[in-house]
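Please go through the sequence line and token line underneath and see whether the fold suits the sequence. See right below:
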Amino acid sequence: MSEKPSSSLSGLISIKGSAAAATPAKPEPVKIEPAPLLKPMPEKSQPKGGQSYWKAMTVKLNRDQYVDLKIHGVKLNKSSQDCISEAIDMWLAAQSAD
């Protein structure tokens, strides 16, 4: 007569009353370093002319104006904000001269 093959679970079976509860391994404590201190933000720079007041404004441009503004801004190494602000200053100076 052939013998039964041994069970693969034979190591997991214990005699009644002799089983012990499995105890999980305690994890090692994780060292937490304090967060680095942040440097204070520098104060915002004052606008030209010593003004301390800014007002946001939306300007709607057609496509040709927008493209020309961007091209000239790149050529002059100026932002669109600087170009528009300079144009407004020149226009206001011309209006006050009249």
